[in-house]
């Protein structure tokens, strides 16, 4: 086992982005740091596999011939629903020897089938979380985060979350500067922390059909510290407050007040995770006005105060 070896088992029906996204991150980190990862793909029998999008991948070798890698990264895709005979057996026999076991999207189903997630907290694509929980009750499924670390096992949500998790692992291996350089090169965010929800406020709500209401949704997102009262937002949409509130609820599936709460909470979480700004400064930037108002919002939604949230999810920014 070499410290920088990375193995990706591939199979018919694999999601190509689950493979190529993380591989680009790790390959880029190797180029930037001068300490490259030994990246290999392998299939049962060593033959080519056809991805869910129709692309053909030619693996480096046969799974039966590979040494135990430092990091085993199991991608997802339609092929995880009916895995090839022997793939789960291989994982059950060999995966536990790796220093890190990682899955992207529905790759968690393969890890669960091999018993590697028993007793662990894990996540997967939001559309599969219920299936994972029902099929494998020994797994503690958390449907919210984009990725979850539990000991040496890490699981991630949909395809782009695999990139986020790969960046987190690169930061662990090579430091923040390398991870940031890779993220900039790939034009992705560094860093979406694992606890970030799979759905942003904008995705959790429906997009309004009418242009004035869509513009209001965008305005709320861009101005969390503004006057976001129903009266002010209704004026922006050129509607009466009563008509605006009814139309917003009908077209987005949530009330204006609830949408504003989600946007402000999401913005505050991001600032606590990614900056060293004080709680008072963040409370003003997010429209709460006072630290106490922000604290009440956090306790109500997350069961924890802002300062504790920062200590838990981004201790490096804690004074």
TrEMBL record:
This is GlxA family transcriptional regulator. InterPro entries: Class_I_gatase-like (IPR029062), DJ-1/PfpI (IPR002818), Homeodomain-like_sf (IPR009057), HTH_AraC (IPR018060), INH-QAR (IPR052158). SUPFAM superfamilies: Class I glutamine amidotransferase-like, Homeodomain-like. Keywords: Transcription, Transcription regulation. Signal peptide: none annotated. The keyword Transcription applies. Residues 214-312 form the HTH araC/xylS-type domain. PROSITE patterns: HTH_ARAC_FAMILY_2 (PS01124).
